[in-house]
Amino acid sequence: MQLTINNLLPIYFPDTRKQTSEVWGKELSFQPGEMVKIVAPSGSGKTSLMHFLYGLRSDYHGEISYGEKRSIRTFNAEDFAAQRKEKVSIVLQDMRLLPEQTVYENLFIKHQLQPFHPVERIKEMTERLGIGSKLNSKCKTCSYGEQQRVAIIRALLQPFQFLLLDEPFSHLDNNNSMRAMDLMLEEAKVRGAAIVFADLERIDYFPFTKLYHL
Ligand SMILES: Nc1ncnc2c1ncn2[C@@H]1O[C@H](COP(=O)(O)OP(=O)(O)OP(=O)(O)O)[C@@H](O)[C@H]1O
Fold first, then answer.
1. Where is the ABC transporter domain (predicted)?
2. For 62-97, what is each residue's pLDDT tens digit?
3. Fold (CATH) for 3-213
């Protein structure tokens, strides 16, 4: 399944942004297995782009399609649900965990919806990212950095061909970021999936095969 974006621009951006961007206003396509890095300073539209690609909002000009040449604009709720269950996973910048549920519950819910790994992997992954002792803590009591690791693991518990990352390490130190990156790379490899990683310039340990300035 290939991801294609064609002549995209947020409706709230001036047309002139197409001239300076390597993404806005361009036609790009990405295949499973590719490592795509999108770098941009704050406020240049990384979150907007990721929300468009995941179908959380559609206030853009242009088209996005996955696989068949059908624009996701034509998707109904069921189409998006099916796509998000099997094909596209995301780590959102604002994480969107269930605050009253424990770390384990947040992850188990995802596992139940569409399991990719045996349930034991939940514990293993949390230990690997240094939050094993937080399994029974409510998410609202976890630090932002801990919550970010929960959001990363949650995204890795399902099948996907594209993993979308919106500044996934904004609350993590370098060591923890690198550990999380390693895990994400392994998980993408197991699935033969692509990663689309949007971040500020500072992360230099993502082994990208394509690089774009937003
Ligand atoms: N619905 C909207 N209407 C008008 N402007 C918007 C809307 N959504 C986002 N913007 C503006 O678009 C710009 C890009 O926002 P966005 O959150 O996509 O950037 P970002 O690159 O992810 O930023 P950051 O790195 O700070 O998270 C910002 O100036 C923001 O105020």
1. 3-211
2. 999 998 778 999 999 999 999 999 999 999 998 899
3. Rossmann fold (3.40.50)
In tens, the pLDDT along 37-67 reads 999 988 899 999 999 999 999 999 999 999 8
ipTM value, please give it: 0.94
pTM of the model: 0.95
Distance from the alpha carbon of residue 64 to the mean position of ligand 1, in angstroms: 19
Whole-number Å distance, alpha carbon 75 to ligand 1 midpoint, is 24
Q: What spacing in Å lies between the alpha carbon of 6 and ligand 1's midpoint?
A: 20
Does residue 44 line the site of ligand 1, with CB under 6 A? yes
